[in-house]
């Protein structure tokens, strides 16, 4: 029966995501299920039953008039011809996700090396006084920057094969979307932990910076660098999942593949964009206000206010269900 449902999803994937199409899809599924159960009751094996059901109900062109979808099907064919989409197999999507995960780590480490490169002159000045210390410090700084640049270039080369995702219209099927959603759900907790640890590292540099010893206060660069590295990796990986899940045309049935149950659909792209940057913006405001005022015992209230405001925005900007 699962094979029939997957076939039905493929049939309707590019159809408009309208109440009429959803109703017709549900009716056709009911007919296919009835036929399948009837054949199973008559002693037909499952494979033969599936094949018969698909042969009888598997051509949407023949069923469109009976389902009242002639107009929608015609418009779908015209859209497919005028704006064809590149289909991505599950293996291709998995390769892309692995590349982006690796690139997130490479870029994160590169940024960490850039931020901490300034610590080498201070370190060698502390360990070796004089021109030898200065020379080794400058050498260490440039080596760090050189390695960072190499990591950036390597990451860029690895990502070149996937630039078409930003230029071409692409599409994934239901099983691929389910695979990506599963990976995204599994990554939500690590993502939250990495962001939380990064914020904690940003906060820890305050007492370190107050210590008037170069070698100790130098640690603030490592705190900040490690925090930025974690944020880059976490956002790169999560961003790759979200990008794949948004490949399908949002106006079609397949456009709903990327949404989990309970996901909120917003009234327009602008509202969706606002909600996507909401928490990063709150985080930036929290850090800026906290660092400027140094009232950490009070600024935590920003999170409480932010949570209330987020819920209100969800209610106001959410689209009405069909």
TrEMBL record:
Question: What is the species listed in this Swiss-Prot or TrEMBL entry?
Answer: Pseudobutyrivibrio xylanivorans DSM 14809
**NCBIfam families, per database record:** perm_prefix_1 (NF038403)
- State the protein's name: XRE family transcriptional regulator
The UniProt keyword set, sorted, is: Membrane, Transmembrane, Transmembrane helix
Q: Lineage, please?
A: Bacteria, Bacillati, Bacillota, Clostridia, Lachnospirales
Keyword hit for Transmembrane: yes
Ranges that cross the membrane: 105-124, 136-157, 189-208, 220-241
Q: Which domain of life is it from?
A: Bacteria
Q: Which InterPro entries match?
A: Perm_prefix_1
């Amino acid at each position: 029966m699962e094979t029939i449902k997957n076939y039905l999803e493929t049939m309707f994937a590019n159809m408009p995501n309208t109440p009429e199409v959803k109703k017709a899809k549900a009716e056709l599924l009911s007919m296919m299920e009835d036929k399948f159960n009837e054949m199973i009751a008559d002693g037909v094996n499952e494979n033969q039953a599936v094949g018969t059901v698909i042969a009888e109900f598997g051509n949407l062109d023949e069923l469109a008039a009976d389902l009242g979808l002639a107009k929608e099907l015609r418009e779908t064919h015209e859209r497919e011809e005028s704006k064809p989409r590149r289909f991505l197999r599950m293996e291709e999507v998995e390769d892309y996700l692995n590349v982006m995960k690796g690139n997130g780590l490479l870029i994160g480490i590169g940024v960490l090396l850039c931020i901490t490169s300034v610590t080498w002159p201070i370190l060698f000045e502390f360990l070796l006084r004089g021109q030898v210390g200065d020379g080794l410090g400058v050498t260490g700084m440039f080596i760090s920057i050189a390695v960072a640049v190499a990591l950036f270039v390597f990451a860029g080369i690895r990502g070149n094969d996937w630039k078409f995702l930003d230029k071409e219209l692409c599409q994934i099927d239901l099983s691929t979307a389910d695979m990506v959603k599963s990976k995204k759900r599994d990554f939500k907790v690590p993502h939250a932990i990495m962001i939380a640890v990064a914020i904690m590292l940003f906060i820890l540099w305050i007492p370190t910076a107050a210590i008037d010893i170069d070698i100790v206060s130098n640690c603030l660069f490592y705190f900040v660098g490690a925090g930025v590295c974690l944020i880059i990796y976490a956002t790169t990986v999560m961003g790759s999942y979200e990008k794949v899940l948004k490949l399908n045309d949002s106006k079609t049935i397949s456009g709903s593949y990327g949404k989990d149950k309970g996901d909120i659909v917003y009234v327009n792209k602008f509202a969706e964009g606002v909600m996507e940057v909401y928490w990063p913006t709150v985080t930036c405001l929290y850090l800026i206000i906290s660092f400027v005022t140094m009232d950490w015992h009070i600024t935590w209230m920003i999170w409480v206010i932010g949570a209330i405001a987020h819920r209100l925005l969800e209610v106001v900007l959410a689209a009405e269900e069909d």
